[in-house]
Amino acid sequence: MNTIVCVKQVLDPEIPPAKFKIDAEAKQVIPPAGVPPVISVYDERAVEAALRLKDKHKGKITALSMGSEKAADVIKHAIALGADDGFVLQDAAFENLDSFGTAYVLAKAIQKIGEYDLVLCGRQAADWGAGEVGSILAEILGIPVITLASEIQAQDKTLRVKRIVSDGFEVLEAPMPCLITVGSEIGLPRLPAGPRLMMARKKVIPIWRAQDIGAEPTKLDKQNAHTEVIGLSVPTRKTECEMITGATPADAAAHLAAKLSKLI
Amino acid sequence: MDNRKGILVCGEFAEAKLAPITIELLGLGRKLANELGEPLSVLLMGSKASGLTQETIAFGADNVYVADDALLDQYNSDGYTQIAANLCQQALPSIVLLGHTDVGMDLAPRLNARLGGGLAMDCLALSIDPATQLLASTRPVFGGNAHATMLAKSARPQMATVRPKTMPPAARDDSRQGQVLPVEGKVDPSAIKVKVVERTKEQVEGVKLEDAEVVVSGGRGIGGAQNFAMLRELANVLGGAVGATRPACDEGWVPVRLQVGQSGKVVSPKLYIAVALSGAMAHIAGCLGSKVIVAINKDKDANIFNVAHFGIVGDYKEILPALTAKLRELKSG
Ligand SMILES: Cc1cc2nc3c(=O)[nH]c(=O)nc-3n(C[C@H](O)[C@H](O)[C@H](O)COP(=O)(O)OP(=O)(O)OC[C@H]3O[C@@H](n4cnc5c(N)ncnc54)[C@H](O)[C@@H]3O)c2cc1C
Ligand SMILES: Nc1ncnc2c1ncn2[C@@H]1O[C@H](COP(=O)(O)O)[C@@H](O)[C@H]1O
C-alpha cells in the first residue's frame, strides 16, 4: 500500500503565551529566537497513522512538505519515524499561498509521484491552521475524503475508518485511493529509532520547484487568493485572579470551598 | 459586482429539535442580514426537516430551504456536500454560515473546496467590514495565541464556521413570516463514495460535559488515569462533569470525548475548575465562556492564573481531597 503524507513545518505552537509575539502591522508572527520550528502536531499523527498501516500491509510512505528549504527537517523527521522517501516543495511562487494555492501545489506534486492508495493530512496545521487543505486537495485529485480519523484499517482496496464524534463514534468505508485527515485521537506518535535517525539526518531531500511539478503561474497568483488576512492581534484577557492561601494546602482548600459554595 | 445576495445558514437538528448552534447562527445571521439589508435563509436537510421550518422562521429566517431526502437523515459528507453545493449554486448566497461542529467541520471545507469560496473556520466574531461591506471573520490561529481577521475579497461565497456558544441564541418571535422552499434534486446515490457503516452513541454516566454547570478538568500534571478519580469525586459532589486537556486524553487517562479546547469541546459552565493544567490558549479556547474559573497549579506563573478568578498555588494531590471534603460538608450542612 502506497501512502503519501503531507507534513507542514510550523512555529512550535507550544511556546508559552507570554513569549508569543506578533508584528500586527505586517500581520506576521515573530518567531522567538532559539525556538526551532517543528512538524505540525497533527501531521506527525498522520505520519504515525501511515506507519501503522505500513506495519501491517507493507508498502511505501512518501512525505511531502511545502515550505522553505528548512522544511527538509520535517521530511527527515518523517523518515526517521519510518517514512521511505520525501520531497520539499519550495519556490518563491509558493510563499504565502492560501489553502487553495497550497492544495494545488500539493496536488501537482502528488500527481507527479503518480501511484498512491492513500493521502494523509493533519486535521489542521498548527500555525494558520485553516483545516481545509485536505478537503481541497481531495477535490482537486478527485478522490473521496474522510476527515478527523481516529483509526484507519485497510482491506483489499477498501479503507475502514473510525471517527470520533461528540456523542460517540462512527465507522466509514471508502474505496482507495482516498484522502484522510487525522486528528490527535489517532494516538501518540512513536519516537524515532536511533539508527533511522542517523540515516535520515544524512539523507539529501530533493527539492521540487514550480516547474518540476508543472504548477501553472496563474494558479499561484496571489491576486487570486481566496482569503486575505486583514488583521492580526493577540487576545488579551487578564482576569484579576484572587489567590487563595492558607496555613496548609488543606486550609487553602477550605477557604476556596467557602468561596465556591457561595457561587453554586 | 456580482448577483449574489443574502446569508445562508446550514442548519442542524436532531430528534425534531434545532441544534443550539443553529439558533445561535440564526441570531448572528439575522443581525448581519439586517445590516446588509439582505435576506436570511436556512437550509435544513433530511426527511424530517419539515416539522422545523416554522421554528427557524420564528428564530429569524426569511426563507427555509428544505432538502427532503431520506439519504440526508444521517450526516454523510458526500450527500450533504452535493446538496448544499447545488443549493449554493442555485440560490447564490453571498455568505454561508455553518456551526463549528462535527458536521460543520467536515462539511464547510468540502463545500468550499467545491464552490471555490473563501472560508474561515472556528470563528469567534463576525461582522460586516464597513469599508468593503464584506464579511470580516475573526478566528484563532497559532493554537489560539493570536486572532486573525480575514476577508474574502473576490472568492464567493464568503464562508465561515462559528464556534458553538460564542454567539447569543436568536430571540424567538412566533409571529414572524417566511417562506418554505423545497430544494430541487435528490442525492445521487452513486456520488456517495464514503459510506457510513456504523454509528454508535456512547452512553455517558452522569452529567454530559457540554451541559454541565460545573466542570472539573485535569491536565498532564494529574499524572495518571487513576488520579482522575479525585477529579471525579469533586465533580460528583458538585453535580458536575470531568473534562481534560489534550495531553491527558492522548495519554489515554480519560476518553478523548472529554477533551476541552479548540480541537475538543467547548463548555461554558458556571464553574470551571482547572487542575494541573497550564492554561495553553488552545485549551482555554474551550472554557473561556465559563462564569468562574478556578485554577489549581503548582507553578505560580502558569498561564491559567491569567484567566482564572480564583487560584491556589500548590500540589493538587494535597488540595483536592480537602476541597472535596469541605464542599461536601458545606453542601450537607
Ligand atoms: C491547533 C492546536 C489545537 C489544540 N487543541 C487543544 C485542545 O482542544 N485541548 C487542549 O487541552 N489542548 C489543545 N492543544 C494543546 C495545547 O497547546 C497544550 O499543549 C495543552 O493544552 C497542554 O496541556 P496541559 O496543560 O495538560 O499540559 P502542560 O502544559 O504540560 O501543563 C501541565 C501543568 O500541570 C502542572 N502540574 C504538574 N504537576 C502538578 C501537581 N502535582 N499539582 C498541580 N499542578 C501540577 C504544571 O505546573 C503545568 O502547568 C492544541 C494545540 C494546537 C497547536
Ligand atoms: N505547506 C504544507 N506542506 C505540506 N502539507 C501541508 C501544508 N499546508 C497544509 N498541509 C497539510 O494540510 C493539512 C491541513 O492544513 P490547513 O488546512 O492549513 O490547516 C495539514 O495538517 C497538512 O497535512
Task: Please summarize what this structure is.
The complex is a heterodimer of chains A (264) and B (333). Chain A is α/β, with parallel strands linked by helices.
CA gyration radius of chain B, whole angstroms: 22 Å
According to CATH, the fold-level topology of the largest domain in chain B is Rossmann fold
Task: Please compute the radius of gyration of chain A using only Cα atoms.
Answer: 22 Å
Instruction: Assign the CATH class of the largest domain in chain B.
Output: Alpha Beta
How much is the average pLDDT of chain A?
95
Q: Give the mean pLDDT of chain B.
A: 96
Give, in order, the helices and strands of chain B.
Answer: EEEHEHEHEHEEEEEEEEHEHEHEEH
* Superfamily (CATH H level) name of the largest domain in chain B: HUPs
For the biggest β-sheet of chain B, the strand order reads 7-11-6-1-4-5-12
CATH topology of chain A: Rossmann fold
Approximate helicity band of chain A: 25-40%
Structure commentary:
The complex is a heterodimer of chains A (264) and B (333). Chain A is an alpha/beta fold. Chain A contains 7 helices and 15 strands. Chain A starts with a strand and ends with a helix. Chain B has 333 residues and is an alpha/beta fold. Chain B folds into 2 domains: 7-191, Rossmann fold (3-Layer(aba) Sandwich), CATH 3.40.50; 209-332, TPP-binding domain (Rossmann fold). Chain B is 26% helix and 26% strand. Chain B is built from 8 helices and 18 strands. In chain B, strand 14, helix 5 and strand 15 (241-244) form a beta-alpha-beta unit. Chains A and B meet through helix 3, helix 4, strand 9, strand 10 and strand 11 of A and helix 4, strand 7, strand 9, strand 10 and strand 13 of B. Strand 11 (168-175) of chain A pairs antiparallel with strand 13 of chain B, so a sheet runs across the interface.
